[in-house]
From TrEMBL:
Protein name from the UniProt record: Plasmid stabilization protein
InterPro entries, A to Z: RelE/ParE_toxin, RelE/ParE_toxin_dom_sf, TA_system_RelE_toxin
Coiled coil: none
Species name: Candidatus Sungbacteria bacterium RIFCSPHIGHO2_01_FULL_47_32
Domain of life, per lineage: Bacteria
Keywords: Toxin-antitoxin system
Amino acid sequence: MNVFFKPTFIKDFKKLPSDIQREVHSLCTEAFPKLRSIRDLKNYNLKPIKGFPGYYRIRLGDYRIGFKLSGESKIECMRVKNRKDIYKHFP
């Protein structure tokens, strides 16, 4: 799959603690590109966002990655924030 990063995602990423940055980086640069379908992400605590088809979140401890699946081969990473803040800004 092709992975794209929104400017808001990059801005959020820079504000994260370094240990979370490493997890997010490995997920977005190693796991996402190897995916064949969204079902392959079930091991990463993936949940769809209710009321917004194509939008998902992945849980990483107290942080969430919000992304959009566009078509069969495009992932747009949109936000990465603490769980208390992510749903104020995503989708």
